[in-house]
Specification:
CATH superfamily of the largest domain: MFS general substrate transporter like domains
CATH class of the largest domain: Mainly Alpha
CATH architecture of the largest domain: Up-down Bundle
Number of strands: 2
Largest sheet: 2 strands, antiparallel
Strand content: under 5%
Number of helices: 19
Radius of gyration: 23 Å
Distance between the termini: 45 Å
Length: 485
């Protein structure tokens, strides 16, 4: 029975199958929401943390970035734990870690215990960043898998928006992030504590959704898996779905010993493609906007309240352009969108570098004279548009397409690890680099954006409309030919 023979409307929003699959995907995507929330909640608190604990620029960057090392560790261990204990149990562990981290960070008495809680939260987020999309892919009927998988990226952008909005509301209510809000705690501490709410929701959901059918089949519980799939796919497609999952599990077991090693600096060329894509995604400096934008806009003349609201508006832009990317990726294609994004990022980052070359003052007293303040604000939002509509979501699309099935799990782990480490490097160095020279800092990010254009034009073929096996073969052949030359 082919997908074309399935009754029309079987996977519409109004069908019982579509509703159940969407409901489970939304529940799992709360993990992506935690990811986005954690990425930006420190935005409104970073200045207060630095002043309250008397931190240098380097240590401030370390406090912000250290969670990313926890994320990397969590992401690298999540797959093995999920295969051993099940997706839902590991989801619950991630929720507990983020819950504890939110409370601990809000009640931190020194910079060093704050660092500890940030690492614990990072571990939880790293777990969620792997288990949530894996669960969505494993419960999603194949006919709507692409649309449901995109919910993870959308949830991340919504988490960023809610974190920045809550930061703005809390700071405004207290009259400043450094001011006491409730129960003798400063507003910046409540910014972290608010994170217990989505963490608790994620933990509760892990007890209310069914286990992944793929995990059940892999552990010999095929009858339970069949019962779950019976609620997610039409009867005509049930046997085919069970057979496909069983075959995929057997293939994975056969390829468990496959190696990613090769003659290109110790790795296969295709693995380096994934690594470089991941590094470029971070080296354009996108997380500077979401970690430090409030600090940035205060430095160029905005009051704290205006800076926080400006950060919120930027996050709204990020959500909207992610929706645009989801709509266009299978219509326009991967390569044209990536190239267009690289051009827009290069131009906008270059304009930010030019704008800050006219800055007056130094340190926390930097201001931008008219008209360079508004120009920098517009350029920053154009940068978010360029990234959010291209490199943000599409790198994840490509990483899911380019690796041969025999090494996909290992190669994805390496590429994701490279992404976390690149994120850490950018986040860690920005405070010191910005104190040294904002024009050169943004000029460096613009250079990486320009190099990303060259890399895509040179190394990335178009994969729109291809079956997964075709995309894998295309990438492997292209890079094997390059290696021979």
């Amino acid at each position: 029975m082919t997908s074309e023979s399935i009754p029309a409307g079987a996977f519409s929003l109004k069908s019982p199958y579509g509703k159940r699959a969407i409901g489970l995907a939304v529940a799992a995507a709360v993990g992506g929401f935690l990811f986005g929330f954690d990425s930006s909640v420190i935005n409104g608190a970073v200045d207060s943390i630095g002043s309250d604990f008397g931190l240098s620029d380097f240590v401030t960057g370390f406090v912000v970035a250290i969670a990313l090392l926890g994320c990397a560790a969590g992401a690298m261990t999540a797959g093995a734990l999920a295969d051993k204990w099940g997706r839902l149990r590991v989801m619950f562990i991630g929720a507990i870690m983020f819950f504890v981290s939110s409370l601990g960070s809000g009640l931190a008495f020194s910079v060093w215990d704050l660092v500890l809680w940030r690492v614990v939260g990072g571990l939880g987020i790293g777990i969620a960043s792997v288990v949530a999309p894996a669960y969505i892919a494993e419960i999603a009927p194949r006919q709507i898998r692409g649309g449901l998988a995109s919910l993870q990226q959308l949830a991340i952008t919504l988490g960023i928006f809610v974190a920045l909005l809550s930061d703005a509301l809390l700071a405004t209510s207290a009259g400043g992030a450094d001011n006491v809000l409730w129960f003798g705690l400063d507003a910046w501490r409540w910014m972290f504590i608010v994170g217990v709410v989505p963490a608790a929701v994620y933990g509760v959901l892990s007890f209310t959704v069914p286990e992944s059918p793929r995990f059940l089949i892999a552990t010999g519980r095929s009858d339970e898996a069949r019962d779950i799939f019976a609620r997610l796919v039409p009867p005509a497609d049930l046997d085919k779905t069970m057979n496909e999952v069983t075959t995929a599990i057997e293939t994975d077991r056969k390829n468990a010993g496959a190696s990613i090693r090769g003659r290109a600096f110790g790795l296969q060329p295709i693995v380096w493609i994934g690594i470089i894509l991941s590094i470029f995604q971070q080296f354009v400096g996108i997380n500077v906007i979401f970690y430090y934008s409030t600090t940035l806009w205060r430095a160029v003349g905005f009051g704290e309240g205006s800076a926080l609201l400006t950060s919120v508006s930027t996050s709204v832009t990020n959500v909207l352009v992610t929706l645009i990317a989801i709509f266009l990726v299978d219509r326009v294609g991967r390569k044209p969108i990536l190239l267009t994004g690289s051009v827009l990022m290069t131009l906008s980052l270059g304009m930010m570098a030019v704008s800050f070359s006219f800055a007056e003052g130094s340190g926390s007293d930097v201001t931008l004279p008219s008209p360079w303040g508004p120009i920098a604000l517009v350029a920053a939002n154009l940068f978010v548009v360029g990234f959010g509509a291209s490199w943000g979501p599409l790198v994840w699309v490509l990483l899911g397409e380019i690796f041969p099935s025999r090494i996909r799990g290992k190669a994805l782990g390496i590429a994701a690890g490279a992404q976390w480490l690149a994120n850490f490097a950018v986040t860690m160095t920005f405070p010191a680099l910005s104190a040294w020279s904002l024009p050169l800092t943004y000029g460096m990010y613009a250079l990486f954006a320009a190099l990303s254009f060259v890399f895509v034009a040179w190394k990335i073929p178009e994969t729109k409309g291809m079956e997964l096996e075709q995309t894998e073969t295309l990438f492997v052949r292209k890079n094997a030919a390059a290696a021979i030359r």
